């Protein structure tokens, strides 16, 4: 139990960061907005779409959504600074993601000072994930199964990177964690998983 508590302390959770109506409206936007394949940045690669590493879709709602969600994220800044003990400046323009059945993102870090090739990765301090819908064991409207957000301990002495915490997600939940923390999105096995993400610098 102590191990689980210690792992959870490395996460910052804000339930109801977005209300249910806002989540539903954004999901509706996802079904009509323009989309692109979500990028992944690999050292030495000029192509930013690698579907063996990350397979998901970015959807692009009207600009008002980007401003609204970014402003709400900035309201969390003092709480994040207190929780993680970091001075933060601002957060990147949010991204909105749509994971369909079979979509995933392998174990990775969002920020790392050793990733010298990509300046924006070097300066990321805190990662943000906001769930727009939630996990359910049984089929229900606007739910999914699979798609767990798993966190791993990269500093474990055995170097086997054991699983620390697995989050299944719920509508409106904001999760924050240090950008160099190892994490993954497991493949979605049913339904569609919608999230908004950003990074504090």
What does this structure look like?
By secondary structure, this protein is of the alpha+beta class. The protein has one domain (2-39, 54-200): Sandwich (Jelly Rolls), CATH 2.60.120. Helix content is 22%, strand content 32%. The chain is built from five helices and 15 strands. The chain has helices at 2-9, 20-30, 63-75, 77-84, 119-122; strands at 11-14, 35-37, 54-55, 57-59, 95-99, 104-108, 126-131, 134-135, 143-146, 149-152, 163-167, 174-178, 182-185, 188-191, 193-200. A seven-stranded antiparallel sheet has the order 1-12-7-15-5-4-2. It has a five-stranded antiparallel sheet with strand order 3-6-13-10-11. It is globular. The two termini are 32 Å apart. The mean pLDDT is 88.
